[in-house]
């Protein structure tokens, strides 16, 4: 009899019962996709990539183009025309590229989801579900064009009001350097990465682009080619 009572007490499991909802232990809300309570910076990847790359590309490409023209032409009008042409062409290129990129990603993922749902015998509206997960192609294209234009305006403004050739080149290089640090820092802060590494990376890359463009254009101009 004693052994039966011991076995019964051993197999007994107590289940806590709460009188009402307020007696239950509270759980802090966790944002979607964050199981440990930390913010998931990867959610910002799509628009952050388009904005940061667009602004940096506009800044570096237009500044390098103007520095290259400035290596062989001293008048400010030529530099500004070249820079403005680079702004328009680059903004259009970024917009088209981003539009095609997002639509390509959209088509690939839709096809993959359709194959998986067909294999599982499911019939949900795949396209409507996927549209909520992916960025709008037109919005991504517009964001890239605007970001590129914002970056490209910096060297144009720096060169517009300076007539002295050498001073103009120095001012453009200085303004671009400051803007690169700002863009790199903003991108790092929004993405949750190292600010110092990001700023150093974009700054060195911008300096290299401007220096190489200036040097090669100067070399071609000094070789006797008519311009």
From TrEMBL:
Subcellular location: Vacuole membrane
Source domain of life: Eukaryota
Gene Ontology biological process terms in this record: intracellular manganese ion homeostasis
The keyword Membrane is assigned to this record: yes
Principal location: membrane
One GO term describing the cellular component: vacuolar membrane
Membrane topology: Multi-pass membrane protein
Annotated catalysed reactions: Fe(2+)(in) = Fe(2+)(out)
Pfam families: VIT1 (PF01988)
Keywords: Ion transport, Iron, Iron transport, Membrane, Transmembrane, Transmembrane helix, Transport, Vacuole
GO molecular function: iron ion sequestering activity; iron ion transmembrane transporter activity; manganese ion transmembrane transporter activity
Record field: transmembrane: 78-104, 140-163, 169-190, 202-221
Entry keyword annotation includes Ion transport: yes
Coiled-coil regions listed in the entry: none
Ranges annotated as biased composition (Polar residues): 1-12
Disordered as annotated region, ranges: 1-38
Assigned protein family: Belongs to the CCC1 family.
Protein role: Vacuolar Fe(2+) uptake transporter.
Protein name listed in UniProt: Vacuolar iron transporter
